[in-house]
Amino acid sequence: MKLDLRHFFHLIKNTSYILVKIDTPYVPKDFPDSYAIGKDLDIIINRHDLTFFRHILEKYAHDYKDDFEMLTREVDNGVRLRFEKKGKLHFQLDVSCGVNGVDESFVEASIRNRKAIDDYFVAEEKYEIIYRYFYYQKKKKKKKYHLNYIRKHILKADKDLMSKMGVNLDEIH
């Protein structure tokens, strides 16, 4: 059984959200028609939409109740919905109101300036770069593909915004 992510995006199409980190080595080129088994999808939302997203996740999970074990867990600033098969992660929807290191006004600006791709929305590069920086820091610098993304897109970066958000440019080079 496979999840229908296009259906999920249809359910959230009128909400304020962005997907981040979809340009990573494990995300298939034909996403959202396929996705990496055992991985997650990071969704950033406005804080005021969290209750609504919980309901959407419940509705979406209900469609798969016969195919997967579902675990919903409240986490800092959000909620996770895990789809498991025989105790192993199949896929996870990770919904949060931000990332440690970014403030609410940054989240709101990144969502307000989102761009549409196919059936979903992503952050503009200048925001994605900053999200990646803080994910890279959070994971103790183990996920080098975040740093590689930043280096590849640095010309699209807003240096003033990066400085305001506390991004250490020396660390990137």
What is the CA-CA span between the terminal residues?
43 Å
* Beta-strand percent range: 15-25%
The string of secondary-structure elements, in order, is HEEHEEEHEEHHHH
Any idea what the radius of gyration is?
A: 16 Å
- Please identify, by name, the CATH architecture of one domain: 2-Layer Sandwich
Topology:
Elements: H1 5-11, E1 17-20, E2 39-45, H2 50-62, E3 69-75, E4 78-85, E5 88-96, H3 104-112, E6 115-117, E7 120-122, H4 125-138, H5 144-153, H6 159-164, H7 169-172
Parallel strand pairs: 2-5
Antiparallel strand pairs: 1-2, 3-4, 4-5, 6-7
Helix pairs in contact: 4-5
Describe the structure.
The protein has 173 residues and is of the alpha+beta class. The protein has a domain of 119 residues: Beta Polymerase, domain 2, CATH 3.30.460. It contains seven helices and seven strands, in the order H-E-E-H-E-E-E-H-E-E-H-H-H-H. A hairpin with a 2-residue loop joins strand 4 and strand 5. Helix 4 packs antiparallel against helix 5.
